[in-house]
User: Which sequence fits this backbone?
């Protein structure tokens, strides 16, 4: 009995170690989320560049020198967008993950610059901004007042957002928008990399996984005992 208990404990520990790998096993629903294939699979308008356009002195927001996309709002071509429609699968919770940098020459007190990420679906889903940042919220840092006077930026690596989705028959539309405008017509930019959207396993799924490993262990023990 003591040996059986020890075997079950070891199997449960092994199952717990497998949970992160199981979570990662869900496929990424975003196509070309790392922009290694340029802008393929994306719909876009305005000044949208990939894979290697570099806004003044900035590189991939991931910090790894990889390809990325840039949305640049100018006086001539304001409000660029980058969009992908996703055919959703069965599930309740989906985790969006990405790296991004927002950069702008707008004054620090200005609310004229907006970078927005929204989700919606063609069945009448609401416009739902996940974030909307302007330089007026105090989150931006000065870049280099000598080489790039007035340039400010905000970087977030590993940004995550859980989407609760109970409409498997509807498509999800992921929108990236840069709303840049102002009296001085300064440029604003959003750089994006490593976008993923994966299903999140429910607690019941994890419990069933542990139970399955436990039952497997019991069966394995009984076969060894009877052999």
Assistant:
């Amino acid at each position: 009995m003591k040996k059986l208990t020890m075997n079950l404990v070891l199997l449960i520990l092994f199952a717990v170690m497998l949970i992160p790998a199981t979570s990662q096993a869900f496929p990424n629903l975003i196509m070309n989320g790392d922009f290694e294939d340029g802008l393929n699979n994306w719909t876009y308008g305005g000044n949208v560049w990939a894979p290697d356009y570099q806004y003044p002195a900035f590189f991939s927001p991931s910090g790894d020198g990889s390809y990325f996309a840039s949305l640049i709002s100018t006086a001539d071509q304001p409000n660029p967008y980058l969009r992908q429609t996703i055919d959703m699968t069965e599930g309740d919770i989906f985790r969006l993950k990405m790296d991004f940098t927002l950069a702008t020459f707008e004054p620090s007190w200005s609310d004229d610059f907006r970078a927005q990420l929204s989700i919606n679906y063609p069945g009448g889903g609401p416009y739902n901004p996940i974030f909307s940042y302007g330089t007026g919220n105090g989150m931006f840092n000065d870049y280099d007042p000598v080489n790039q006077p007035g340039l400010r930026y905000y970087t977030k690596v590993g940004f995550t957002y859980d989407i609760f989705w109970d409409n498997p028959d509807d498509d999800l539309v992921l929108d990236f928008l840069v709303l840049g405008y102002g009296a001085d017509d300064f440029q604003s930019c959003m750089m994006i990399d490593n976008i993923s959207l994966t299903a999140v396993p429910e607690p019941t799924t994890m419990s069933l996984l542990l139970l399955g490993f436990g039952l497997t262990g019991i069966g394995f023990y009984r076969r060894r005992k009877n052999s």
Remarks:
- The chain has one domain: 28-204.
- The chain has two helices and eleven strands.
